[in-house]
Specification:
Elements: E1 2-7, E2 13-19, E3 24-31, H1 37-52, E4 61-65, H2 71-88, E5 91-95, H3 97-108, E6 114-121, E7 124-130, E8 136-144, H4 145-153, E9 158-160, H5 164-171, E10 180-182, H6 189-198
Parallel strand pairs: 1-4, 4-5, 6-9, 9-10
Antiparallel strand pairs: 1-2, 2-3, 6-7, 7-8
Amino acid sequence: MRVLAIDTALAACSAAILDTSNGGIIASESLPILRGHAEALMPLIGRIMTEAGTAFRDVDRVVVTTGPGSFTGLRVGIAAARGIALAIGKTAVGLSTLSAYAAPYLADDDNAPVVVAIDARHNHVYLQVFAAGGRTVTGPRLAPLSEAVRAAAAAPARIVGSAAQMVADGLAVTDAMPLHVDGAGAPEIDWVARMGAALPEGQSPPKPQYLRAPDAQPQNAAQLPRR
C-alpha cells in the first residue's frame, strides 16, 4: 500500500509517502510555518511525489490530520486530502492530531502514560491522556491548563505537544517530574503516514475536529435587513 500523508493542522505544512511493501517512508518534507499552508501545500506534495517517483494514480490511500488545530490549517489539509482522493478514486481517512503526537511514544514504550497537550490559548489546551497499552483515559477535549497539569502529575508521564512545556512548568510547583517533555509544534508526518496505513477500511471522509467554537463570531447586530 502507498499512502500519502498530509498535516497542516498546526505549526507545520507536511507531507509524506509511505510504501508499506517497500521500505516504509520513501519521501517526506515538513516546513515549519504558522500561516500560508494553502500556498505551500500543493508544491510541497509535488516535491515529495517527485522524490518518491510516485504518481497520484499509484497512491492507495490519503490520510490527513483532522485536528484539533488551526481552523484555517485544518480546512486546507482536509480539502486537499479529499480532493486528491476524489480525483484518483481512492479513500481519504482522517487521524486525530492528538493521536499522531502520541504515536511514536506509545510505539517506543506503551507502559508509561503519554499526556498530549496542544496550546488552545487563554490558559486552555486541547488534551488527551493515554495510559498503559495506549488506552485512552482522557478523551480529546478542550481543558484548562490546570487539568493537564493534574493529569501529568498523577503518574510519571511523557508530555508532548505544543503546550508540553506549559504543562511541565505547571508541574514545577508539585513534586511530580515528567519522564520526557517534547514541545514540538506539530506531530511527526512519518507517524501520520504509518497510522493512516493501519486504519481500518470503510471510514467516512475526514472532517475537522475543532473541539471549540471559532473565536470569530458573526456580527448579527450589523446584518442588513433582507428585502
